[in-house]
Amino acid sequence: MNYITLKSKNKIPKFGIGTWRIGENENKREEEIKSIIFSLKNGIKLIDTAEMYGNGEAEKIVGEALKYTQLKREDIFIVSKVYPHNAGKDKIFNSLEASLKRLNLDYLNMYLLHWRGRVALKETVECMEKAKNEGLIKDWGVSNFDIDDMKELESVKDGDKCVVNQVLYHLYSRGVDFSLAPYMKERNIALMAYCPLAQSGNLGKDLLSNKILIEISKKHNASVSQIALAFIMQVSNYIPIPKSVDQNHILENINSQNIILDNEDIKIINEEFPKPNNKMPLDIV
To answer: 148: Cβ–Cβ under 8 A, 6 or more apart, which residues?
Structure first.
């Protein structure tokens, strides 16, 4: 497992799994728990979740799965997120404690503001720093923040302590590459990529059927999803967090870390999925 060193000097795995849409169907609960256990047994050390997912049920499922791992707590990186309407001093600590209880943890490695809300950023940052000082979280960040949001965040006291921004990113959606990602790179803020496979076509574009990616995948004796994930990690240097409950797909995604794209591959992919040459609205799901 490769790692990225955050500006806080803490390390985050360069690949993880997401849990969006987990916990929404009681009939799938056992399968979902087993999928996370399987992921942990096969090298996954980063799990992303949120109080919103399944109305807290996703966190419960992660917490249940963690009971079956032999990994030490310090070797697992757990990310959760707070609703914007819970991100003020009157609610955030209750939300955080509830997330920790559902996850059966004493602390989170990362706590994110899920998206911009009405609570002043100054107040949320103060709360995040307090939670960090009290040992409830190791680091904090944001999600679905565009460049203007990031600039506003950094204008408030301790706003520069933000270490991560999690945004939608896949080969058909590279809008952040124009200005947001370069801005974050200058400030050593890591980018986590959710929906890195465009939800297998559910976001309007089917990466898995792209002829260029199919040809490159044949060259590497790999799957199209592995090529797409390898590009995100190797070329974009972002942290993808694909979600799957199918064990074959999970293992396939994990093994994408072993794919090494050559310069010709990268050139062809960039030609097929070019970076934007102007500012684009931030994609959000």
So the answer is: none
Q: How many CA atoms lie within 13 A of 262 on its CB side?
A: 5
Cβ atoms of residues 174 and 182 within 8 Å: no
pLDDT at position 277 is 95
Is 228's pLDDT higher than 80?
yes
Question: Catalytic residue numbers?
Answer: 53
Query: 180-223 pLDDT, tens per residue?
Result: 999 999 999 999 999 999 987 777 678 999 999 999 999 999 99
Give strand pairing partners of 82: 113
Hey, what amino acid is at 166?
Q
Q: What are phi and psi of 69, to 5 degrees?
A: -90, 150
List C-alpha distances in Å: 273 to 212, 219, 221, 267, 276.
Answer: 10, 19, 21, 10, 9
